[in-house]
Amino acid sequence: MKPEILDQIDATAMLNDVQAWCAINTGTGNLEGLKKQADMLADAFSVLPGEIELVDPAPVTGIAADGEEFAIGNGQHLIVRVRPTANRRLLFTGHMDTVFSKDHPFQDQTWLEYDVLNGPGVADMKGGIAIILHALKAFETSGKASSLGYDILINSDEETGSLGSSALIAEMARGKLAALTYEPAALPDGTLAHARGGTGNYSITIKGKSAHAGRNPHEGRNALVAAADLILRLKGMEREDISVNPAKLEGGGPNNVVPDHVVLRFNIRPKSTEAMEGFDSALNSLLAEIETTHEVTAHRHGGVTRPPKPVDENAQRLFELVKECGDELGQHIAWKSTGGVCDGNNIAACGVPVVDTMGVRGGSIHSADEFLIVPSLKERAALSALVLSRIADGALAGDVN
Fold it and tell me: What is the DSSP string of 280-325?
């Protein structure tokens, strides 16, 4: 069965897709570019025997430097549903957005070598989207496709934490046998990301009371001092299983005025669910202490956006299946734990086994040096197609036709 599937993968068509898609700027905030990309993807994925839908993002808000909450716009998400009534169903996810804004200088593609392409999103992750499409096209010709159903989600806001799509990810993960996500490989040699830590972003608005720094400073309540105290206490909450990074402090004013307003922004990286939940609970108590000690008010915004992703027995079984398929194709598949995060964290939090670096081999993502190793397009599409074939045959333990 293997040769018939793999013969269906057209490397030239894959590269053409990637280059056409990467010619569109899809920085997360570029709603016009994301709309154009979503329409192109809807057309491309229409070759699959499923229903296509463009779904509006969930509302997302941020905190401005003045402490006011504001709406953040995101693009629509693409959903494809194939054989939704099948007993065994999989989830495939990717993202159409990049980190390169509409006015970013990195917009063009350049050949670094005859088989290495430099360009915005070539690896992260329009190359991965091409793998999803062409692997599924090949699988649909295999004669085994009728035994599996699947959903595809290509979201528009992964690079900013999937805040407008996290509920959709959870909804689509529900009841799935397994999931594959198409972030680029963790290393250019194809190594997969294994366990992942989590991440959370917080904005704390502290409001005090202004006063003249010379005449009546005692009547003021210094929000900046309260924030400094908070920063030191946050760093004191670090443990082996969680790091805290105070990243930005906005506020203050003239030297002769007691500052009455600041916004503190910080990030946490929990390595376990226990650390994540423990920090979130402790933060509430800490903010209450800051309010009492400094006679200010503290308002929190944000929280954990990506829960930690441990690898349990079921997930490890999926990793082993990918490795076995790689061996059959002459591809050495290894894995390593990483501190990076992606939508795979959200999927794993739903109890669904996931391998989240099934995308291309490449590197230097999130920089103007981003590159794609072009032969990996067909290579990794072949890997996915074979994995699907084995799952259709009941390769996952406890999975029966």
Answer: HHHHHHHHHHHHHHHT-EEEEEEEEEE--B---HHHHHHHHHHHHH
CA distance 326 to 220: 66
Quick: pLDDT tens for 272-301. Answer: 999 999 998 999 999 999 999 999 999 999
Beta bridge partners, 373, equal 116
Integer angstrom CA distances of residue 233 from 32, 50, 128, 198, 283: 43, 52, 41, 21, 10
Residue 400 in this model has a pLDDT that exceeds 70 = no
91 contacts 172 by C-beta, under 8 angstroms: yes
> Which one has a higher pLDDT value, 143 or 46?
46
CB atoms near residue 299 (< 10 Å): 14
Residues 6+ apart with CB under 8 A from 300: 202, 203, 204, 283, 284, 287
Beta bridge partners, 204, equal: 264, 300
How big is the chain by its Cα radius of gyration, in Å?
24
Q: What is the pTM of this model?
A: 0.95
Q: What is the mean pLDDT of residues 198-216?
A: 98
Could you read off the pLDDT of 156-173 as tens digits, one per residue?
Answer: 999 999 999 999 999 999
Chain-centroid distance of CA 228 in Å reads: 31
Give the span between the Cα atoms of 172 and 149, in whole angstroms: 12
Which helix (H) or strand (E) covers residue 90, if one does? strand 89-95
Q: What is the pLDDT of residues 185-194, one digit of tens each?
A: 999 999 999 9
> Exposed, middle or buried, 397 (CB in 10 Å: 0-12/13-18/19+)?
exposed
Question: 378 by DSSP, 3-state: which?
Answer: helix
Do the Cβ atoms of 265 and 251 come closer than 8 Å?
A: no
Terminal Cα distance for the chain, rounded? 17
| 283 in Cβ contact with 211 (< 8 Å) | no
Q: Is the peptide bond before 125 cis (omega within 30 degrees of 0)?
A: yes
Please tell me the total number of residues recorded for the chain in this structure. 401
Residue 182 neighbours by CB distance under 10 Å: 30
How many Å apart are CA 344 and CA 111, to the nearest integer? 31
How many other CB atoms sit within 10 Å of the CB of residue 12?
9
